[in-house]
Structure formats: structure tokens, C-alpha cells
Design goal:
Elements lengths: L1 E5 L3 H12 L5 E6 L2 H10 L4 E4 L8 H11 L3 E6 L9 H8 L2 E10 L15 E8 L7 H17 L14 H8 L3 H11 L15
Parallel strand pairs: 1-2, 1-3, 3-4, 4-5
Antiparallel strand pairs: 5-6
Helix pairs in contact: 2-3, 3-4
């Protein structure tokens, strides 16, 4: 798959480039630093997929997505590392309405959260990664196995799951997620929620 990256933040663009370059199945076709540049590059060398940031100079990701879908249509995923710039979600929703999916990237320090049992990788820097596909219900069964595969691949690389979403997690995966704290999680659940009233069925605690 040939992939275009549209992102004006050099660090974010490089992180995406490395992810794409780490597989043999995909290649980075080009990197655009502005929305206008992305529209032009799509017209000159149309990729199979564009990873589109929302906040860019000259032309933002919403308008760039609209123009690309009109002039050089291709698959587009909205990738933003600055979701706080779009408090009401209007920009993201507009991009989705124009034909884009939605990926969130948010970098932070590994020490940002001190919430007990909120598991994060034990590294100085952490990259939050979320896939929010805008898709019709009839193709969800086709997409879910691929979302599960992406989750498994990230876990193998040392990632931790955010405690929501469509990803299917069985008991071995939860044990991997919580690691040495798994027994504490099960003990606290049985102590404070013995009837399983809170979020029933989300985590398989076992008997």
C-alpha cells in the first residue's frame, strides 16, 4: 500500500513514517507539510491512503480532506496529535463527513498518570494511539478482526490498552495487560464489587 502523510509537525510526521516503513507491505509515497500541499500531491501522485492531520497551515485537514475527496478521491484517515485544539469535535466530525476515518495520537511523558492500576508502558515517553473508524455497520465484522490484530501487535511491542473500545480482550490478554498487578485487580474486584455490577462483562476476571 502506498501511503501519503500530511502533517506539519516534524516529530509526528517522522513517527508515522517510521511506523509505515517498519512493514514490507507499505511504503511512504510522500510527506506534505500543509493541507494545500497534500491536495497537490494527491493530484500528482495519488496514494492508496492518506494519514491526515487536522491542524495545518494554509489549508486545514478538514478542507484538505474535502478537496481530495472531490478531486483525487482515496482512503483518508484523520490523524491528530492535538485533539485539545478541537474541543467540540466539529473539525473531526467534518473530516469524517468528508470521507475520512479518525486516528488519535497524543504524546506524553511516562510519568503523566499516577492513577493506581492505570497501566502504561514503563518508558520515559508514551505515545497514545487510538483508531476511531468511521464506517457503516455492515462492514464492522470485516474491520473488527483487523482492529484486534492491530491491538495484539501493539501489545507485543509493550503497549497497554486504554480501558474502552471495541477491541476484544480475553482473560490471557487482560493478564498480560495488568502483568504482576493482575492478582490485585481480581482481589479488589471481588472485595468491592462481588456481584459484578460495575461494567459487567468488560474484563474476564475468571471464577
Amino acid at each position: 500500500m502506498k501511503i501519503g502523510i500530511a502533517n506539519d509537525v516534524a516529530m509526528a510526521a517522522e513517527a508515522l513514517r517510521r511506523v509505515v516503513a517498519s512493514t514490507h507491505e507499505h511504503q511512504v509515497l510522500w510527506i506534505a507539510r500543509t493541507g494545500a500541499e497534500a491536495v497537490r500531491m494527491c493530484a500528482e501522485n495519488r496514494p492508496d491512503l492518506v494519514l491526515m492531520d487536522l491542524n495545518m497551515p494554509e489549508l486545514d485537514g478538514v478542507e484538505a480532506t474535502r478537496q481530495i475527496m472531490e478531486e483525487s478521491p482515496c482512503a483518508i484517515l484523520v490523524v491528530t496529535g492535538r485533539p485539545h485544539h478541537d474541543h467540540d469535535g466539529a473539525g473531526r466530525n467534518s473530516a469524517l463527513d468528508s470521507g475520512g476515518g479518525h486516528v488519535l495520537l497524543w504524546p506524553c511523558r511516562g510519568t503523566t498518570s499516577s492513577v493506581p492500576l492505570f497501566m502504561t508502558p514503563k518508558t520515559p515517553l508514551v505515545m497514545g494511539f487510538g483508531i476511531l473508524p468511521g464506517l457503516p455497520a455492515d462492514i464492522l465484522p470485516f474491520v473488527k478482526p483487523r482492529l484486534n490484530a492491530a491491538s495484539d501487535a501493539s501489545m507485543q511491542a509493550g503497549a497497554k490498552r486504554y480501558l474502552s473500545g471495541l477491541i476484544e480482550f480475553d482473560r490471557p490478554r487482560w493478564k498480560q495487560h495488568f502483568g504482576p498487578k493482575w492478582d490485585d485487580v481480581c482481589r479488589l474486584k471481588k472485595t468491592f464489587d462481588p456481584d459484578g455490577i460495575l461494567n459487567p462483562g468488560f474484563i474476564d476476571y475468571g471464577p
